[in-house]
Amino acid sequence: ETGYTTYDDGLANTASTMSAITYIDGDAGVLRYRGYPIEQLAKESTFLETAYLVIYGELPTAAELATWEDRIRRKTMVDERMREFFKMFPRRSHPMPVLASGLMMLSTYSFDSVDYTPEAIEKATERLIAKVPTLAAYGYKNSRGEAMLYPDNSLSYIENFLRMSFAYPTEPYEFHDEITRALDVLLILHADHEQNCSTSTVRLIGSSGANIYASVAGGVNALSGPLHGGANQAVVEMLSAIKESGISVKEYVQQVKDKKAGIKLMGFGHRIYKNYDPRAAIIKEHADKVMSLKAGRRDLLKLAQELEHAALEDDYFTERKLYPNVDFYSGLIYEAMGFPKEMFTVLFAIGRLPGWIAQWRELVTNPKRKIGRPRQIYIGEGERDYVPLGDR
Ligand code: SDX
User: Fold this and answer.
1) So where's the catalytic machinery, residue-wise (predicted)?
2) Which of 5, 127, 280, 285 has the most C-beta neighbours closer than 10 Å?
């Protein structure tokens, strides 16, 4: 009697939009950005080049790439007062809400009058790609009570972020090509993923006419949930808890199967991939390389591999098509690089930024765009009259 065509809890079977950015075949474990398989991009491309591809739709020529890198290099600084603003957050503030707050600070410049001219969209695009790593590093340093370092534009995009995160005014950061390349690849693998929870949030906010900074801030907040981007932090917390509890992999897997206290095998399962997440396979390759270099928690990596093996041998998981997703191994690599678990989802956000920007641009340049407003199935009370307080 509702007259609605479908009721689709969690929009699992509803196409909320048409998009030319990312193609996923969940059953076959295929992921392509603008038609290019991520396996090739992870091998051949850089994150900044992939960001260009995701946003503009084509791989850049050498000249276009040089111009793009120069545009980004010139915008890495943020307003000096942002440093004071970040210092207002208590020490050990989680860097995700700090990043979202920094984005809202950026949105104050153009909160009321969203300008959809190509020039304005280009300016916002390069400001976000250039400044988010600086905001992320500021949030991280401030949470540790350490000096926030200015960007050094003689460095590459990834090196600049690593240095702002780990160097001190008194101590330089020692670069390792394998670490820099591993972070480049990890960010490539996170660049877009069609209409996931945080991207759908960016589109929904953008559909109301809100500016891109406020839309992306919403995406950061959606990403922070442990069922979405926050899973990379939850995986390492799960592995550490298993280690500390001393229970065996077999016992933990049984607790998950018994749905004890609602625990899940974090980093496993996916709304779309009913096969191995192709990103997880690539990330796993880098785990060993990075951990041979840096003192990563090899004990947790071993535990993760045992958990994966146990789950993939168990009908409970294979019947439900539960396989490792992008978050299962990424946190272990980030931790080996020196990031604390609270920064893992910030790194996911830096990687997902080109996708959020590309999807917002695709939305606002679509002349037929509609404001997001799904209907519902009402299951509440029927009409009833007000009861005065004395009669309740
Ligand atoms: C990301 O959408 C994207 O693209 C997201 C992402 C991206 O790039 O943007 O890929 C990034 O968010 C990856 C997912 C990270 N989240 C986690 O790793 C958290 C753990 N995973 C689950 O919460 C879950 O798998 C979801 C939320 C990811 C997907 O859930 P679904 O597809 O809605 O599955 P469901 O909740 O309907 O569960 C189906 C069955 C249930 O069992 P039964 O009720 O049938 O007995 O599978 C079980 C669930 O209990 N199940 C799990 C499980 N995930 C689902 N059981 C144990 N451990 C799990 N992780």
Assistant:
1) 270, 327
2) 280
